[in-house]
Amino acid sequence: MRILLADDQVHVRSALQILLKQEPNLYVVGEASDAESLVAQARAVNPDLVLVDFELPGLKESNLISMLHQEFPWMKIVALSTLLEKRAMAVNAGVDAFASKIDPPEVLVALLQSFAVNRYHINL
């Protein structure tokens, strides 16, 4: 599964790169630091899934998710946040799953691997 990382914090993107590099079937194909670069990278690399910070600078969260779904209907969207109260907002905005940045790394890996084997679900 080809994954695009989108987070404004370089250390978060680097940690995700290191984590996902160790996983079979999960390939990071690009990175973005704001909504504009996310859309540009998605157009350039055509990912299967975008792992996006739900507070990514550039657009209101719900507008970004809606825009991504319209332009890339096949692409799965997994939102990340340290704020657990963002989970309901993210799901209502249309993400395919939500993961907390404070969860153990294995939780995120298991979620992404479930998408890789076509077991799509909403992680509430």
Descriptive account of the structure:
This protein has one domain (2-116): Response regulator (Rossmann fold). Helices cover 44% and strands 21% of the residues. It contains five helices and five strands. It has helices at residues 10-21, 35-45, 61-71, 86-93, 105-116, and strands at residues 2-6, 27-32, 49-53, 76-81, 97-100. A five-stranded parallel β-sheet has the order 2-1-3-4-5, sandwiched between helices. Strand 3 (49-53), helix 3 (61-71) and strand 4 form a beta-alpha-beta unit. It is globular.
What tags apply to this protein structure?
alpha/beta; Rossmann fold; 5 strands; 44% helix
Poorly predicted regions are none
Structural class: alpha/beta
What level of helicity do the residues show? 40-55%
Q: Could you name the CATH homologous superfamily?
A: Response regulator
Mean pLDDT: 91
What Rg, in angstroms, do the CA atoms define? 13 Å
> How many β-strands, per DSSP?
5
Please provide the ordered H/E string of secondary-structure elements. EHEHEHEHEH
